[in-house]
């Protein structure tokens, strides 16, 4: 079943009675997984009252192996993004051979716990299978491979179960305003972006289609270029619905102009979503760093709530032990709202408060 989009705060507040019914409706399933030690009203319920979703990037193997992890996902988050298992190397490891088994574990969990699913991701320069990355295909063949993947994944398999797709992930270079050379750009030219959006829209006309990027949370040359790209896609009639601001921050670096930056995208008629939030500190973390981190988590949520087209926030993982940060940035870590034992950190309290708890 398609999950309905969260109601906009300016459209209507969710009635207390309706919320109570919804909360009671899933309480039994969630209680079976918990309750956890997080305490207070779960983030997902607070977010629903604000008309936004709070979600998490989830690893289905940990859902199976780590009971505390599973319980927190069920209890705290109203939206689930596949941290890895909807990427191309998992879904189509060999040409024409699709494997939806682990992704389906995740969608089944999400259905059981009344969670919406974000799809991540269709076209990216990483986590592609060797046959695709090394295939040296010409434009015609690559275009047909791209269409087959999107039709099969977005249309045949997940239509109606995934409410939003990161169709294009990280199309720009790490910094600056140039498109990133990758398999798609190099072979199909810049039109690969519009073409992928059109194909995804035909495959599932109800899905919200996103470009997802990092280092674009404040105004800078990269977000300026993303803005120009989004405006020109809309002008050409491409079905682009939203911009994902990944939001991988170092503590103390949330841009002051994040709200203004989000608003220029919503002024184009797009929605924005914070899609991969984590806020890393130097490890081992001291109290002061965790305080700054907590303040930053609060700021990001408040920023989203100040922008009427911001649909919500997804954090990139559950507990500090599952985060991608330490292996990519040695010396940094402790980036998530729960610690290595899944106990709540000050950041968790900040999220609750920012969401009105
Ligand atoms: O699956 C293999 C496993 O078989 C092998 O034994 C193991 C040994 O290292 O590696 C496993 O693959 C790892 C994979 O995650 C699944 O756990 C890769 O090495 C590892 O590089 C990969 O990292 C992921 C990364 O994307 C890849 O670029 C992270 O978990 C994932 O959190 C991260 O997510 C990205 C978003 O998709 C896009 N935005 C940035 C974000 C952070 O990098």
Automatic annotation (TrEMBL):
Catalytic activity reported: Endohydrolysis of (1->4)-beta-D-xylosidic linkages in xylans
Keyword flag Hydrolase? yes
Domain of life of the source: Bacteria
- The keyword Nucleotide-binding is annotated on this UniProt entry: no
Q: Which GO terms describe its molecular function?
A: endo-1,4-beta-xylanase activity
Stretch forming the signal peptide: 1-27
**Where does the GH10 domain lie?**
37-354
Q: Kindly give the Pfam families that the UniProt entry links to this protein.
A: Glyco_hydro_10
EC primary class? hydrolase
Q: Name one GO biological process term.
A: xylan catabolic process
List keywords of the entry alphabetically: Carbohydrate metabolism, Glycosidase, Hydrolase, Polysaccharide degradation, Signal, Xylan degradation
Give the EC number(s) under which this enzyme is classified.
Answer: 3.2.1.8
> InterPro entries annotated for this entry?
GH, GH10, GH10_AS, GH10_dom
- Catalytic residues (positions): 276 (nucleophile)
Q: Which family does it belong to?
A: Belongs to the glycosyl hydrolase 10 (cellulase F) family.
Q: Which PANTHER family match?
A: BETA-XYLANASE (PTHR31490:SF88), GLYCOSYL HYDROLASE (PTHR31490)
Q: What is this protein called?
A: Beta-xylanase
Which species is listed as the source? Streptomonospora salina
């Amino acid at each position: 079943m398609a999950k309905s989009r969260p109601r906009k705060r300016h459209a209507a507040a969710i009635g207390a009675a309706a919320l109570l019914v919804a909360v009671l409706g899933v309480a039994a399933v969630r209680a079976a997984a918990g309750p956890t030690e997080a305490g207070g009203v779960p983030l997902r319920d607070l977010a629903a009252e604000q008309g936004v979703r709070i979600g998490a990037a989830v690893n289905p193997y940990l859902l199976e192996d780590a009971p505390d992890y599973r319980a927190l996902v069920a209890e705290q988050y109203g939206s689930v993004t596949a941290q890895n298992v909807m990427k191309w190397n998992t879904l189509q490891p060999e040409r024409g051979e699709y494997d939806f088994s682990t992704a389906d574990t995740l969608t089944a969990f999400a259905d059981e716990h009344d969670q919406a699913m974000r799809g991540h991701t269709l076209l990216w320069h990483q986590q592609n299978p060797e046959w695709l990355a090394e295939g040296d295909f010409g434009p015609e063949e690559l275009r047909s491979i791209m269409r087959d993947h999107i039709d099969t994944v977005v249309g045949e398999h997940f239509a109606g179960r995934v409410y939003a797709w990161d169709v294009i992930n990280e199309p720009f270079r790490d910094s600056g305003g140039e498109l990133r050379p990758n398999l798609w750009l190099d072979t199909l030219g810049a039109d690969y972006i519009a073409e992928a959006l059109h194909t995804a829209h035909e495959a599932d006309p109800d899905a919200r289609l996103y470009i997802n990027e990092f280092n674009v949370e404040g105004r800078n040359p990269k977000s300026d270029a993303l803005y120009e790209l989004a405006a020109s896609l809309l002008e050409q009639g491409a079905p682009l619905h939203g911009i994902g601001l990944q939001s991988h921050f170092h503590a103390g670096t949330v841009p002051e102009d994040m709200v203004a930056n989000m608003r220029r995208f919503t002024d184009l008629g797009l929605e924005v979503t914070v899609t991969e939030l984590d806020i890393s500190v130097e490890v081992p973390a001291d109290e002061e760093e965790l305080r700054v981190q907590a303040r930053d988590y609060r700021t990001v949520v408040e920023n989203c709530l100040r922008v009427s087209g911001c649909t919500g926030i997804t954090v990139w993982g559950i507990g500090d032990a599952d985060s991608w940060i330490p292996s990519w940035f040695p010396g940094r870590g402790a980036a998530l709202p729960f610690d290595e034992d899944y106990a709540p950190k000050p950041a968790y309290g900040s999220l609750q408060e920012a969401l009105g708890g």
